[in-house]
């Protein structure tokens, strides 16, 4: 069920708790609703009423997974009497009569029915167990001896090779996952009656780490573990005992893996207990190797195929950052330096002309990094910059059908010429210009250039028209705009990109929906002029130069806002401003903030200034937040704080509230918030585009997040990125795609949502 952090309006788990769990608890005499959590996650939490749950969840003080676990535990308790009733011999017999297991006839020659059964996970008897006793094997230093309760009258004896790999003291009373139908074997004089299932991870230092699989907290010994799609009621009960000569488990073991989320799987299908509670393991897996059949190995995070050709798949934050990778690949001979076709899948054309600045390589190949940086001006001029260098002869923009109202046609192709002009410009200063050709591609017709001064003064300014003779053409390109469903059809027919053409594939995650984050602040009731004042002050206080410093500066501000909120809690109404200079609590707040500032002084986040000026600016900044209400402060904290542009951009624009580049009510960018069903359909459409085999293998793939500049939905970006990468990896079985995450990604490889502080309360108390 859908359960997004902090979302209380569209939440199936909360609805189930409200209309099922709590009414039943009320009928049971008003029992408490208890959510069990590990101590490192805050320990158990008890709720008297549903409203308490909703309020806590809305404040993001209750994690969605903890809520799911709590509801699942409560539901299990409700169903336990029914399960116990069905354990009676009469009802078990009735079950067997109602759902008989189809018997397979013996093959000629006396072969057993088990030999004719498919080799799949339904053959395995996997159960939740609890280790009730553990010690070192008396005859072997590398073995442990355990007694494991698997729901039978007596514990089973299990001998495992964990000595030296996993601490003995951590096994005592630990819940584990056990394979129970292997043939018992003698291991140094003691018969082992089951196998402990563990995850095996080999890190970059070649050191092997082992950890037992971790069943759900509400599991009990004997609970059956199955694989989705291979349930026993569909395919039959497990073998009473696996025939060791047929190597059943050994055949299945290579596909017993763990996902990147730590879920144990078989060929991508999750292992679970009843009610589909996933089986997890607790190691951050990296490169993985399997050392023996006693262990389930983790899946490598980067999916690869047999090497025939190598293609880089680069993930960047802002779109102009692809220029460094394109030019580097061309300089190394991975892609041609000219004549390429760009397949650009994006909600925006990104075809604005660049500005002629110092060090700009005018219609030639850049000679050094300084010239490349001069081309990296913003997220909407990088394509024209690449075209001017000669890298592309044709650009195909595939735009999303949700933006049809802003387009004149579903498939339009135009030839353009680019050049320079000095027409009507003081001191013969050069500017870039472009001309559109007639349909026959021979006659220049409409020509214009962008006067940057007029552009900044007039929001409706869309370029200055000039005569064709006044634009000195230096190069040409073909520009095609095509809606996504037409692009899919043409790709299938091999009509979009010609056979033998050199192709670069470029995808922006905002293709799937464009959400302007600044509305979050406006909806909270913060006037935009006040947002701009806060931004200006923050630019005067913070000067992070690296994304690492950016993350530290964001954490600093999160701690400050948490302190302010902490001192607001004495207010009776959330809408009341926090504290005032006359409030006694303001002194305590000042002491707390001073302590935090001192702890961050040497972390490279503050601008160079004297101590007194820094204190004055910080005090003024904090006064702005103190004047906000609690919900408004939380809106700022939820949005976070970041650099406006990537630190590798030609001109960095400082540190501010992370609302993106498009201000509410001043941008012409179309906003489109997709629902889950639409998002799924659009992801499938892109997958179908990429899986068609009627276009050349791209020499490079670039994927842009567009979270920093405020386009891509933070809510969905992880799902979008994972799906797009998987679609690219699956698009060519004869290609090994090397996934590269750029160093300047906002929030790092895991993204902006990962920056949220999980221990804010602890930081406040220090």
How would you describe this structure to a colleague?
30% of the residues lie in helices and 20% in strands. It has 766 residues and is of the alpha+beta class. It contains 21 helices and 30 strands. It is globular. The protein folds into four domains: 12-89, Orthogonal Bundle (Tyrosyl-Transfer RNA Synthetase), CATH 1.10.240.10; 121-277, OB fold (Dihydrolipoamide Acetyltransferase, E2P), CATH 2.40.50; 309-514, no CATH class; 518-657, no CATH class. Helix 14 (528-541) runs antiparallel to helix 17, helix 15 (547-568) packs antiparallel against helix 16 and helix 19 (676-691) packs parallel to helix 20. The strands form six sheets. An eleven-stranded mixed beta sheet has the order 24-23-22-21-25-20-19-26-29-18-30, with helices on both faces.
Overall tally of structural domains: 4
Read across the widest sheet, the strand sequence of neighbours is 24-23-22-21-25-20-19-26-29-18-30
Number of strands: 30
Biggest sheet, open or closed, and with what strands and sense? 11 strands, mixed
Strand content: 15-25%
Note poorly predicted spans: 102-112, 275-307, 570-576, 579-585, 757-766
Based on Cα principal axes, name the global outline: globular
Radius of gyration: 31 Å
Whole-number mean pLDDT: 83
The SS-based structural class is alpha+beta
- SS element count, helices: 21
End-to-end CA span:
38 Å
What is the share of helical residues? Answer: 25-40%
């Amino acid at each position: 069920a859908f359960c997004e952090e902090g979302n209380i309006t569209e939440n199936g788990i909360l609805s189930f708790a409200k209309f099922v769990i709590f009414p039943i608890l009320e009928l049971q005499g008003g029992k408490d609703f208890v959510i069990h959590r590990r101590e490192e996650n805050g320990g158990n939490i008890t709720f008297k009423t549903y409203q308490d749950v909703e309020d806590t969840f809305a404040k993001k003080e209750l994690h969605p997974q903890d809520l799911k676990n709590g509801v699942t535990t409560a539901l299990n308790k409700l169903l336990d009497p029914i399960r116990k009733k069905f354990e009676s011999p009469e009802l078990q017999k009735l079950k067997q009569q109602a759902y008989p297991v189809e018997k397979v006839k013996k093959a000629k020659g006396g072969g057993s029915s088990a030999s004719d059964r498919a080799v799949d996970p339904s053959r395995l008897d996997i159960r939740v167990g609890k280790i009730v006793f553990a010690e070192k094997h008396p005859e072997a230093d590398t073995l442990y001896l355990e007694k494991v309760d698997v729901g039978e009258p007596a514990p089973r004896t299990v001998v495992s090779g964990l000595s030296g790999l996993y601490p003995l003291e951590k096994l005592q009373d630990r819940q584990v996952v056990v394979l129970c139908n292997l043939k018992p074997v003698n291991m140094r004089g003691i018969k082992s009656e089951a196998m402990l299932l563990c995850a095996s991870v080999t890190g970059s230092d070649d050191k092997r780490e082992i950890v037992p699989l971790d069943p759900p907290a509400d599991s009990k010994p004997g609970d059956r573990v199955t694989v989705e799609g291979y349930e026993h009621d569909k395919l039959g009960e497990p073998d009473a005992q696996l025939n060791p000569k047929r190597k059943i488990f050994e055949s299945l073991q290579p596909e017993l893996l763990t996902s990147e989320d730590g879920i144990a799987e078989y060929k991508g299908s999750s292992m679970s207990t009843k009610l589909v509670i996933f089986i997890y393991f607790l190691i951050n897996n990296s490169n993985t190797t399997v050392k023996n059949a006693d262990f389930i190995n983790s899946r490598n995070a980067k999916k690869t195929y047999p090497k025939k050709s190598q293609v880089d798949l680069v993930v960047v934050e802002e779109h102009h950052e692809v220029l460094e990778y394109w030019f580097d690949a061309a300089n190394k001979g991975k892609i041609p330096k000219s004549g390429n076709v760009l397949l650009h899948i994006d909600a925006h054309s990104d075809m604005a002309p660049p500005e002629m600045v110092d060090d700009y390589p005018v219609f030639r190949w850049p000679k050094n990094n300084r010239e490349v940086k001069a081309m990296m001006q913003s997220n909407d001029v990088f394509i024209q910059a690449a075209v001017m260098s000669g890298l592309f002869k044709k650009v195909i923009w595939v735009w999303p059908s949700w933006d049809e109202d802003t387009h004149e046609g579903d498939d339009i192709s135009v030839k353009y010429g680019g050049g320079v002009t000095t027409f009507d410009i003081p001191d013969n200063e050069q500017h870039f210009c472009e001309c559109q050709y007639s349909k026959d591609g021979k006659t220049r017709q409409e020509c214009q250039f962008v006067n940057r001064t007029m552009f900044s003064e007039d929001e409706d300014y869309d370029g200055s028209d000039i005569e064709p003779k006044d634009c000195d053409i230096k190069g040409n390109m073909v520009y095609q705009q095509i809606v996504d469903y037409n692009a899919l059809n043409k790709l299938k027919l091999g009509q979009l990109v010609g056979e033998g053409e050199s192709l670069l594939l470029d995808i922006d995650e905002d293709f799937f929906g464009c959400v302007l984050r600044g509305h979050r602040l406006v909806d909270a009731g913060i006037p935009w002029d006040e947002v701009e004042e806060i931004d200006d002050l923050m630019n005067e206080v913070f000067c992070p130069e690296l994304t690492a410093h950016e993350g530290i500066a964001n954490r600093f501000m999160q701690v400050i806002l948490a302190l302010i909120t902490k001192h607001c809690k004495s207010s009776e109404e959330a809408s009341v401003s926090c504290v005032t200079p006359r409030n006694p609590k303001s002194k305590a707040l000042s002491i707390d903030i001073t302590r935090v500032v001192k702890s961050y002084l040497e972390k490279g986040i503050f601008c160079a200034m004297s101590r007194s000026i820094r204190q004055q600016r910080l005090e003024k900044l904090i006064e702005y937040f103190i004047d906000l209400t609690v919900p408004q402060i939380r809106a700022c904290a939820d949005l976070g704080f970041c650099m406006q542009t990537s630190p590798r951009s030609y001109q960095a624009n400082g540190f501010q509230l992370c609302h993106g580049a498009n201000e509410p009510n001043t941008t012409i960018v179309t906003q489109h918030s997709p629902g889950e069903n639409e998002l799924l359909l659009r992801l499938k459409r892109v997958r179908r585009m990429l899986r068609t085999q009627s276009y050349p293998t791209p020499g490079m793939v670039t994927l842009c997040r567009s979270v920093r500049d405020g386009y891509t939905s933070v809510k969905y970006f992880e799902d979008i990125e994972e799906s797009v990468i998987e679609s690219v990896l699956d698009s060519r079985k004869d290609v090994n795609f090397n996934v590269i995450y750029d160093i300047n990604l906002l929030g790092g490889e895991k993204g902006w949502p990962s920056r949220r502080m999980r221990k804010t309360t602890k930081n406040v108390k220090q």
